[in-house]
């Protein structure tokens, strides 16, 4: 979805307006479909977070970020990569110079808001309720593995970064049963990633 917007050179107000409608329309349709599948898979409707769930979300998120930071250093040492292939792809999109600034705003909206909702519905809400729903750890491992593979990892050490992130998010969902906890943690993670990317671009 993000690369499509860039590759079609939307520059005029009409093109940009159509791009916005198509972007949010497609995103809404995808979320709607995934929510329906999530319900059919047995996922319960998420409600507001309790104080205990907020605290658990904060703790798991902190552990996930610390683990990712350590594994990023390992990835640099073993694979000599300063950034993962997934982050490099996003940097390339944001610095390509092909898009109107308003389209770049859409890319950030996708990264920070839409992608976390879609990914948590798919990788946690649907996947973990479809496969071995009565097991605690098996769905966590499956979800983390698929999540890691989906993030364009080209080395085992970079795969471990996303695998660990997926495992922490999957554990959070399994232990709370509330998909909102994962969506909030994932949005916060992507917000930090977006800020980091913007700072890299500006410098």
From TrEMBL:
One example of a Gene Ontology biological process annotation: CAAX-box protein maturation
Pfam families referenced in this protein's UniProt entry, alphabetically: Rce1-like
TM segment ranges: 20-38, 58-79, 99-118, 130-150, 156-173, 180-202
Gene Ontology molecular function terms on file: endopeptidase activity
Ranges where the CAAX prenyl protease 2/Lysostaphin resistance protein A-like domain occurs: 103-192
UniProt entry tagged with the keyword Transmembrane helix: yes
Keyword vocabulary terms for this entry: Membrane, Transmembrane, Transmembrane helix
The organism's place on the tree of life at top rank: Bacteria
KW Transmembrane helix (keyword) present: yes
InterPro entries: CAAX_protease (IPR052710), Rce1/LyrA-like_dom (IPR003675)
Family classification: Belongs to the UPF0177 family.
Protein name as catalogued: CAAX prenyl protease 2/Lysostaphin resistance protein A-like domain-containing protein
Naturally occurring in which organism (per UniProt): Lactobacillus selangorensis
């Amino acid at each position: 979805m993000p690369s499509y917007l860039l590759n079609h050179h939307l520059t005029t107000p009409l093109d940009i307006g159509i791009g916005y409608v198509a972007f949010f329309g497609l995103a809404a349709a995808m979320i709607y479909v995934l929510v329906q599948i999530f319900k059919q898979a047995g996922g319960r409707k998420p409600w507001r977070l309790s104080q205990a769930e907020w605290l658990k979300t904060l703790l798991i998120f902190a552990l996930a970020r610390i683990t990712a930071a350590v594994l990023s250093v390992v990835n640099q040492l073993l694979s000599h990569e300063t950034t993962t292939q997934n982050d490099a792809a996003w940097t390339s999109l944001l610095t390509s110079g092909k898009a109107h600034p308003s389209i770049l705003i859409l890319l950030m909206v996708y990264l920070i808001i839409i992608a976390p909702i879609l990914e948590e519905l798919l990788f946690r809400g649907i996947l973990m309720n479809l496969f071995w729903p009565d097991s605690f750890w098996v769905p966590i491992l499956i979800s983390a593995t698929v999540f890691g593979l989906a993030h364009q990892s080209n080395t085992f050490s970079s795969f471990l970064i996303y695998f660990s992130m997926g495992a922490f998010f999957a554990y959070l969902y399994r232990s709370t049963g509330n998909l909102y906890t994962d969506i909030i943690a994932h949005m916060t993670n992507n917000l930090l990633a977006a800020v980091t990317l913007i700072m890299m671009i500006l410098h």
